[in-house]
Automatic annotation (TrEMBL):
This is Digestive cysteine proteinase 1. Keywords: Disulfide bond, Hydrolase, Protease, Signal, Thiol protease, Zymogen. Belongs to the peptidase C1 family. GO terms for molecular function: cysteine-type peptidase activity. Residues 253-471 form the Peptidase C1A papain C-terminal domain.
Amino acid sequence: MKILLKLFFVALFAVTWSEVIADCRGKNVEAPVWNPVYTVKGILYIPYAELEEPFYAWYDSPNKESRIDYYGGMVKTYQLGNSGPYGTSLKVAPVTTETELNAKTCLQVNGSSEITIEPQSVLPSLVGFECTDLSCSAFPGPGDKHIYTFNPMKEFVHPTTTSHVDFEFDKFKTKHDKQYVNVLENERRREVFRQNIRFIHSVNRQHKGYTLGVNHLADRTELEMKALRGRRYSGVYNGGSPFPYTYVNKDKLPAEFDWRIYGAVTPVKDQSVCGSCWSFGTVGAIEGAFFLNNGHQLVRLSQQALIDCSWGYGNNGCDGGEDFRAYQWMLKHGGIPTEDDYGPYLGQDGYCHVNNVSLTAKITGYVNVTSNNEPALRLAIVKHGPISVAIDASHRTFSFYSNGIYYEPKCGNKVDELDHAVLAVGYGTINGQDYWLIKNSWSNYWGNDGYVLMSAKNNNCGVMTTPTYVTM
Ligand SMILES: *[C@@H]1O[C@H](CO)[C@@H](O)[C@H](O)[C@H]1NC(C)=O
Ligand SMILES: *[C@@H]1O[C@H](CO)[C@@H](O)[C@H](O)[C@H]1NC(C)=O
Ligand SMILES: *[C@@H]1O[C@H](CO)[C@@H](O)[C@H](O)[C@H]1NC(C)=O
């Protein structure tokens, strides 16, 4: 939820500043102080995901409570600092199963000694802001730093004379449009950022064959990055058909392959702050199969429909899922709608409304590619299009991956060690090392334009453990 907080601020910044500036004009006044109890509404912009989420928030500092509703109350979240030893958070969201449509369902998460749950303030602290110039007419830009001084953050005062970390942090914040609610949060994020860039530089000095970069996740804690994965392993047989080829001769296949060149892959998407990776892997595989079976038509299919509607098969919306559960739902309901028909991705659990739209990509079944078999996965890619794969993405090296062939010796490759779902769209060899070309769903800012080359050696990180494709 901390992540959401700073995104809020992006939304509110303009409003807040225009108020401050209006107050400043022609007089010398103090920065406003927010009431300890307030309500506010606005729109949360998440640029990478092309998301605009309307919200309404209540904040009650004396009672240590807050509530934030999204999309007109479709999803309601409560942060209760006084409930239980470490606070409690509640989420009320619509859940659609095979027997119920959009039943309001409450999910409770208790705080712990590691993460205490506190009320979320949406408005930024303006302590330290001063208005000293009577003619201030615009937001302070590079040329008019003297108008506002905000000493605790040193932002508008001496941006270049501070330490290297501060300099990098400022650059990072500008590049990714990050603003934090208050000085404390800024300090906390700077510390997380400092640890992350130390890690990034230290890995890069080791010349591992791949490099890390300071991407948009560099101010996030490991716990927050965990929320970006969201493959939930249930330990059951997935119901897939066996791979129909017994022996595959690797030498008879193209030495390298990339479905992007043929136009079978939609642009990289962003799951935002929602553990819906499973829906992106699934949808990528279906978009590819649809392309191959429908005269090379590339259409964007709807992740949101799977998030909203496939609970009955064991998926949990933004709290995780598995590809085969989405396939099973599609088999029962006769396909999946296009994004145009169903509506845009929301980054939240939403109301299921598939009954009102046409379902486009009808599937007839799904197949398990032979596990841990490099020629088999290569053949599957060439013959059947992009393949949904599960991987172990739990290492910090993955979060900050930028270039080269990713190989992480700490990675697991057993089914129960795989926590993220992605899409294999090709393969190849660089300097004698075989790799899989993998599309992620963490926006273009992550990795190599949203993609990663993952080593095929020793089934590293489990790319070859549970690959699946659909038949049409
Ligand atoms: C959270 O704590 C309450 C008691 O305060 C308990 O009844 C509930 O089961 C706990 N929920 C979870 C998910 O641990
Ligand atoms: C996929 O299917 C094969 C045989 O059809 C089975 O052996 C394998 O366990 C299945 N994989 C999963 C992840 O259930
Ligand atoms: C579906 O359409 C009907 C009639 O057009 C409407 O009454 C209903 O609210 C719609 N349902 C959803 C979930 O959008």
